[in-house]
UniProtKB/TrEMBL annotation:
<dbReference type="GO" id="GO:0051301">
    <property type="term" value="P:cell division"/>
</dbReference>
<dbReference type="InterPro" id="IPR033138">
    <property type="entry name" value="Cu_oxidase_CS"/>
</dbReference>
<keyword id="KW-0131">Cell cycle</keyword>
<keyword id="KW-0132">Cell division</keyword>
<dbReference type="GO" id="GO:0016491">
    <property type="term" value="F:oxidoreductase activity"/>
</dbReference>
<dbReference type="InterPro" id="IPR011707">
    <property type="entry name" value="Cu-oxidase-like_N"/>
</dbReference>
<keyword id="KW-0560">Oxidoreductase</keyword>
<keyword id="KW-0946">Virion</keyword>
<dbReference type="InterPro" id="IPR008972">
    <property type="entry name" value="Cupredoxin"/>
</dbReference>
<dbReference type="Pfam" id="PF07731">
    <property type="entry name" value="Cu-oxidase_2"/>
</dbReference>
<feature type="domain" description="Plastocyanin-like">
    <location>
        <begin position="219"/>
        <end position="309"/>
    </location>
</feature>
<dbReference type="Pfam" id="PF07732">
    <property type="entry name" value="Cu-oxidase_3"/>
</dbReference>
<keyword id="KW-0186">Copper</keyword>
<dbReference type="InterPro" id="IPR045087">
    <property type="entry name" value="Cu-oxidase_fam"/>
</dbReference>
<dbReference type="InterPro" id="IPR011706">
    <property type="entry name" value="Cu-oxidase_C"/>
</dbReference>
<dbReference type="InterPro" id="IPR002355">
    <property type="entry name" value="Cu_oxidase_Cu_BS"/>
</dbReference>
<protein>
    <submittedName>
        <fullName>Multicopper oxidase with three cupredoxin domains (Includes cell division protein FtsP and spore coat protein CotA)</fullName>
    </submittedName>
</protein>
Amino acid sequence: MNRKIIGSAMIVILLGLGVVLFFNSPYYNNSSNQSLPEEVLEEEGTSILDVGSQEAGDRAVKTFDLTAQEIEWDIGNGETVNAWTYNGTVPGEPLRVTEGDFVRINLKNELDVPVTIHWHGVLLPNKMDGVPGLTQNAVQPGETFTYEYIADDAGTYWYHSHQHSSTQVDKGLYGSLVVEEKEKEYERDEFFILDEWAVNQEKRDMSNMGGMMMGGMSGNGEADTQQMYDTFTVNGKAGDAIEPLVMKKGETARLRFVNAGYQQHQLVFPKGSTKVIANDAEKVKIEKGSTNVIEIAPGERIDVAFTKQTSESEIIGQKTDVENAEDMRIPVVTEKGSDVKANNIAASSGVADGVSYGSEKLLFEETPEADVTYNMDLSMGMNMGEGMVFQINNDVFPDTPPIKVSDGDIVKVNITNNGRMNHPMHLHGHRFQVVSKDGSEFDNPIVKDLIHVKPGEQYTIYFKANNKGEWLFHCHDNNHADRGMVTIVDYKEVYSPFEIGGEKGNNPG
């Protein structure tokens, strides 16, 4: 959905106890065809289609066929949802390859709307990134597209549509992707994708959330999404329909978690059972005294080493302080069919999140001197007659100022959340090093591709511009991205030949 820019007027909105002034809040209207700002689209240098190409050579080639199709999906507990899927399941077909493999994925679109596939967190050539209007045209109904890249970096990833993702990911167009190490560290390896659905209520549109905002926010910055959904799922199932994890006492497994939804989730593990081993496909330093509660932000990936503590049934489940928590409970049993006791949701006072543990391998051993510095101000606004918008530097996409870089630049980004909602900010095509929070430097910096910035928080990150292209940097609450919170890392040496909107209906939000 592309939005025309609507300016004018000064609007005063009461947010809780504060009064925030918004002036000339632009908005990106669904009905119009928009292009990127001129400075991004200047056709200088090389097309992104001509950079970074990769060939299979003598590598092993792993080929997958994914078909986007509509089904009625049994979510469990007697409920079904209309879902859009890759290969007829939610999540879509799980993809597993080995580091170094050449991966080929043939996408066929059998939906009546355009789709793409974005390979979340994977470092690949820009033209394979799956962003309509920026790196490709959306794949039209009845058409096909082939993605190819080398899976060089072992870790936990996922794939999802980036065409109007606030709707398409919400309806189930996502799946798991694991790039396994050549020598596996754990014999047992399981994947869990967390999500939220509107099953027994009509999903509220973000544009109509202004009245709720006037009434105040919840304490965790998520009032917008908490009122939009009524059911939590794990691997597409809710409550008693969730498949148990069968493990013997003392057995250890690698559990990979992805949050495909738009709310943060805090998972409670049996005490003493769990160590975080990776975050966003980067190994972390395992420290003593880690908590049994792990917070996973929207779009984030966290891997844990989980050891079953007893021969009794156990539960890995959503912390019980939120509505619908009972839907998100993974039983851990010693034998399939064993009874599961409603126990074990006993949280400790501490919570480990995406910046709790430093990374084993850093991008920069010392804080570098930046060639480019970009101050990213995240805020909220209202648009006359259109509702709520989410802004970067007081603009909404495609009018947000790009991060302009040259190949080889060291880039510093100061991200500040001046709004009242959480914003998990995800950078495509690169990893960045998180060096400080609220002005305090981390003793152990963290390498990631997504940073969860809560209201009032400020992070400083660094990355090296070493992957030419036009790359999105956006909020992974896709409702926020859809309503403006997107910008672009724009390499001066290249340009994109694609356009937002147009006859292909390209919508990267």
